[in-house]
Specification:
Blueprint lengths: L12 E7 L10 E2 L5 E2 L7 E2 L19 E5 L3 H10 L5 E4 L8 E7 L3 E4 L2 H6 L5 E6 L13 E2 L4 H6 L3 E2 L5 E5 L1 E3 L42 E8 L5 E14 L10 E9 L3 E5 L22
Parallel strand pairs: 12-17, 13-14
Antiparallel strand pairs: 1-5, 1-9, 2-3, 4-5, 5-8, 6-7, 6-9, 7-8, 10-16, 11-12, 14-15, 15-16
Length: 296
């Protein structure tokens, strides 16, 4: 992206975490939007589905967390991991069969989510320790003071198309334009923590619930209308937020594939371009061994 920033003045920290187990309780069942009970995998552990560029919906899953689900056992250290890890940061396994291999942070949910090549994921397991090269919080765009940048590695920013236009607006490319009424779980939370769930992508359920979002892919950049994520998340007419889809299929009502916040500000500060190729898979380096093929 052709835009001036303060990237040269940002601090890099090495943060610790570990692959966290999937958890459940003795009640087992939850219910979907039509009242149907389900027991499905999704959160925690190592998930071998949903690489960058692959479909976010259609899986037999609830709150699909692709790749490695990473957190820290100490609550304070875990908040630091959540708040400081940025989309595009390198994550290196430092124990287990995949020690020395790397992946890329694709966003936050209940955990920091890390995509990696299949062989890296196959060699990883619960309890493996990781190091996150946290870099990006505090990123600011010099010519766009109204635009707040969140959770974004400057290297990803540089790889994105768009930038400062002659009229002074920030051009951003997104794959999907999301209506304000899709905003689900995540409202009211800090935009550096977890993500926002998008309703209206309940594949296989009542068609009246659809908002046309069943085609979302993991890593898609999306624009959320009338939404402000500058200081938390909420409805604000005339504002917009751009994020990247970091979680997938949800069966629980009020939830859905979730974007991690990248940009937010008044709508007049942006020039939004609809671009089917606007996916994080195009903006992260091959050296991180992230699978970027888009399924046909």
């Amino acid at each position: 992206m052709k835009v001036e920033s303060n990237a040269g003045r940002l601090v890099t920290q090495l943060l610790a975490g570990e692959v966290w187990p999937a958890t459940a309780d003795r009640h087992a069942y939850r219910v979907d939007a039509d009242g149907g009970p389900f027991v499905l995998p999704g959160m925690g552990g190592v998930t071998l589905a949903g690489h960058l560029g692959e479909p976010a919906t259609g899986w037999a899953s609830d709150h699909l967390e692709p790749g490695l689900s990473v957190r820290h056992a100490d609550p304070g250290a875990n908040y630091a991991l959540q708040n400081l890890t940025c989309v595009g940061n390198e994550v290196t396994l430092v124990s287990g069969a995949s020690a020395g291999e790397s992946g890329v942070a694709i966003g936050q949910h209940a955990y920091v989510l890390v995509d990696a090549a299949d062989d890296v994921l196959e060699g990883a397991t619960v309890g493996d320790r990781v190091t996150v090269r946290a870099h990006g919080q505090g990123l600011a765009l010099k010519a766009h003071p109204q635009v707040r940048v969140k959770n974004l590695d400057p290297a990803v920013l540089d790889a994105m198309p768009g930038g400062t236009r002659p009229d002074g607006r920030l051009e951003v490319h997104v794959a999907v334009d999301v209506p304000a009424d899709a905003a689900g779980a995540g409202g009211g939370m800090a935009s550096e923590f977890a993500n926002t769930d998008l309703m209206g992508a309940y594949a296989g359920l009542d068609a009246s619930l659809s908002l046309g979002l069943e085609g979302l892919r993991i890593g898609d950049l999306v624009v959320m209308r009338d939404t402000d994520h500058s200081w938390g998340r909420g409805y604000r007419p005339g504002w917009l937020t751009v994020g990247t889809i970091s979680t997938g299929q949800c069966a629980l009502f009020g939830h859905g594939p979730g974007p991690t916040t990248l940009f937010s500000g008044p709508a007049e500060a942006f020039h939004v371009v609809i671009d089917a190729d606007a996916n994080l898979s195009a903006y992260v380096g091959e050296s991180r061994r992230v699978r970027t093929e888009v399924l046909a």
